Amino acid sequence: MEKRLIIAIDGPAASGKSTTARLLARRLGYVYLDTGAMYRACALQLLRDGISLEDLPAIEAMLKDLDIRVEISGEENRILLGTEDVSQAIRANEISQLASSVSALPAVRHRMVELQREMASAGGFILDGRDIGTYVFPNADLKIFLTAAPEIRAHRRWLELKNKGVEKDLDAILAEIKERDHNDSSRSLAPLAVAEDAIVLDNSQLTIDQQVESLHGLVLQTLEAK
Ligand code: CDP
Ligand code: CDP
User: Residue 79's beta-bridge partner residues?
Assistant: First the structure.
């Protein structure tokens, strides 16, 4: 039987990770796991519980009780906190910024990484995030680092919001993206970084289809080499 790979897609905000991972997973019959959504759900829980980021004992207690589940149905990841589906709630803009701060806390990362390894180690998974190829699965079969110029990523987010009927200043989005890039790259534990053996793909000038096509080619090469 064909080997079922573990594919890591890392990169900064709005570089196209989730769109690409979802489409590639569909093409390969693999499962897509959105690890960013897990950090977002943690951030939402902290916000709802009114826990400050400095209150480490309260955060550890929260993590112990945290009932976070990723339901994988087809290409969609539904994120549940207890019995509540929070898939939409975690996409709020304030959660993006909070998730970036929450994800720098070692206790949070340890718990999330443990869950990610439990879910995906059998293979047949595409995971996207910041530290998949460097930390969560350093032995992943294929590691991709997606990136694009910050201005292009900001414009993509702006367009995404506009299509949802949300008008937001492009410069404000660019500033938030830069701030998140900085936070994610400068934290001490598992920062956003290019793994030594990752293939870097700058998609500033690529359409989504072109990008998925080129990754699919890399997957086929990887399978042939196995
Ligand atoms: O989709 P977008 O790039 O805007 O963000 P996301 O992938 O949903 O991740 C939200 C935040 O979670 C990021 O800014 C990171 O700080 C954090 N994250 C992380 O630290 N490690 C991961 N593997 C995934 C996300
Ligand atoms: O998951 P991540 O935050 O890295 O990015 P995403 O949510 O997949 O992509 C952000 C936006 O950029 C989406 O609206 C994509 O449709 C768009 N995109 C694009 O226009 N061209 C690409 N080559 C990749 C993504």
Answer: 70
Q: Which atom of ligand 2 is nearest to the CA of 12?
A: 4
Per-residue tokens: 23 = 């489409």
Mean pLDDT along residues 44-54: 96
The structural domains of the chain, ordered by start, are: 6-225 (3.40.50.300)
% the chain with pLDDT above 70: 99
Name the nearest CA neighbour of 11 among 176, 125, 181, 174: 181
Flag whether the pTM goes above 0.70. yes
Contact by Cβ (8 Å): 139, 93: no
22 lines ligand 1 (CB under 6 A): no
User: Is 40 near ligand 1, meaning CB less than 6 Å away?
Assistant: yes
DSSP element (H, E) containing 77: strand 76-81
- Cβ proximity of 39 and 99 under 8 Å: yes
Residue whose token pair is 């059998």? 122
* CB of 69 closer than 8 Å to CB of 58: no
Does the Cβ of 158 fall within 6 Å of ligand 1? no
Protein residue with its CA nearest to atom 10 in ligand 2: 14
Q: Quickly count: other Cβ atoms within 10 Å of residue 210's Cβ.
A: 11
Report the nearest atom of ligand 2 relative to the CA of 146: 4
Q: Is 160 in the pocket of ligand 2 (CB under 6 A)?
A: yes
Sign of the torsion formed by the C-alpha atoms of 21, 22, 27 and 31: positive
5: tokens are 């790979």
One-letter amino acid of 54: E
Least confident of 36-40, 46-50, 164-168, 169-173: 164-168
